[in-house]
Amino acid sequence: MKTSKMQAIRVHQYGGVEELQLESIECPRPGDNEVLIKVHAAGVLPIDWKQRQGIFKHLRPMQFPYIPGSAIAGIIEDVGKYVTKFQIGQEVFGRSSTGAYAEYITTDIERLAIKPPELSFAEAASISGGATTAWQALFVNGNIQKGQRVLIHGAAGGVGSFAVQLAVWQGAQVIGTCSAANVEMVKALGASEVIDYTSCRFEDIVKEVDMVLDTVGGDTLERSYAVVKRGGVLLSFAGQISPEKARELGIRAEFSNTLLSADAMQEIAQVMADGHVKAIISHSYPLHAARDAHIQSQTGHGRGRIVLEIQRSL
Ligand SMILES: NC(=O)c1ccc[n+]([C@@H]2O[C@H](COP(=O)([O-])OP(=O)(O)OC[C@H]3O[C@@H](n4cnc5c(N)ncnc54)[C@H](OP(=O)(O)O)[C@@H]3O)[C@@H](O)[C@H]2O)c1
Questions:
Q1: Whole-angstrom Cα distance, residue 266 to residue 269?
Q2: Ligand 1 atom nearest 181 alpha carbon
Q3: Quick one: 137 and 209 in the same domain?
Q4: pLDDT at res. 257
Q5: Is 183 found in the same domain as 104?
Q6: Does ligand 1 come within 6 angstroms of the Cβ of 47?
Q7: Per-residue confidence band for 1, with pLDDT thresholds at 50, 70 and 90
Q8: Quick check: helix, strand or coil at residue 3?
Q9: In Å, what is the CA distance from 31 to each residue of 38, 98, 187, 292?
Q10: Which atom of ligand 1 approaches the CA of 303 most closely?
């Protein structure tokens, strides 16, 4: 590493996008069990702006100042003295707790995997919090089977676009919901039916599905219980589940969290490298435009993942 200083976005207090400050700060050094990564791309996830706004401040308070972002892809620049699994120069991707919106990040290796050469850094940065979330819900929490019917809300989004493709890859029949602008794209991802939520109510069209994956929450989640068949499952990433309602209807309903291992992340990357599933990158911004990236993400509408391409901005 040539310099001891790096550019990073830091947040010093909860608030609006103006709290995303581009600063020149000390470059971190890896601890004994950590690696130092030169970050090439960072995924911009809805949780990044929710944390910055303080939405989770009572549940998981942030330590200020902090560098936002958890989804990373880059090149290992240095390794701690106990790290044997990774070497300097390897291209990796994965997840850290925070710190992704920076030229360099130190992180433990628990959720790091090798980036296949077929994937760009931006594509690899879209895996954590997108493909991992969809994979966990479909294959771990939902145990989806070939031939089952699954309704995916927010099918065009950072999680939903992966969920549609992974479910189709597994042999499921996918029905997706999105706005009119994204209908053709979701069809192209493999959904057999796509419902424009701005012009009709999905429950008037879909009944008796094996599984619902909800990335929208609120009223969409509330209306989803009724379309799951008895014995089926409703998984939400975005809203509060009612166990009572699920029990009454004889379905399983759960909030779905992402807790995937590095091995599972490696498997996902290979499925992508083999061409079964592709990352959709809707917008790419340089590091200094992190505010624009958050403004875009906060709209709650769009296609696939937004990324910061960190090295592009230097
Ligand atoms: N629990 C977890 O571990 C976990 C992990 C990742 C994400 N999440 C949460 O899951 C949610 C989605 O994340 P994301 O990364 O996919 O967000 P995103 O990339 O911003 O995508 C949101 C998508 O929702 C669609 N949408 C908005 N309103 C809709 C409606 N009424 N019906 C159907 N689709 C609608 C939008 O499509 P249109 O443009 O077509 O409207 C957009 O494509 C966020 O709340 C996020 O915090 C949770």
A1: 5
A2: 40
A3: yes
A4: 83
A5: no
A6: yes
A7: low
A8: coil
A9: 16, 16, 46, 33
A10: 43
| Same-domain status, 54 and 134 | no
Ligand 1 atom 21 nearest Cα: 157
Ligand 1 contact via 301 beta carbon (within 6 Å): yes
CATH of the domain at 142: 3.40.50.720
Q: Report d(CA 168, CA 182) in Å as an integer.
A: 18
The two structure tokens encoding residue 280: 């959709």
Question: Residues 73, 29: one domain?
Answer: yes
pLDDT tens digits, one per residue of 226-246: 999 999 999 999 999 999 999
Which CATH number goes with the domain that contains 60? Answer: 3.90.180.10
Q: Are residues 35 and 136 located together in one domain of the fold?
A: no
Counted domains in the chain: 2
The residue length of the chain stands at 314
Expressed as residue numbers, the domain containing 192 is: 130-255
Ligand 1 in contact with 182 (CB < 6 A)? yes
Q: Quick check: 314 pLDDT over 60? A: no
Ligand 1 pocket, residue 223 CB under 6 Å: no
Decide: 43 in ligand 1 pocket, CB within 6 A.
no
Q: Please report which confidence band the pLDDT of residue 259 belongs to, taking 50, 70 and 90 as the band edges.
A: confident
| Best of 126, 298, 301 for a ligand 1 pocket test (most atoms within 8 Å of beta carbon) | 301
Same-domain status, 231 and 158: yes
Q: What is the pLDDT of residues 86-123, one digit of tens each?
A: 999 999 999 999 999 999 999 999 999 999 999 999 99
Q: HEC string of 44-84?
A: ECHHHHHHHHCCCCCCCCCCCCECCCCEEEEEEEEECCCCC
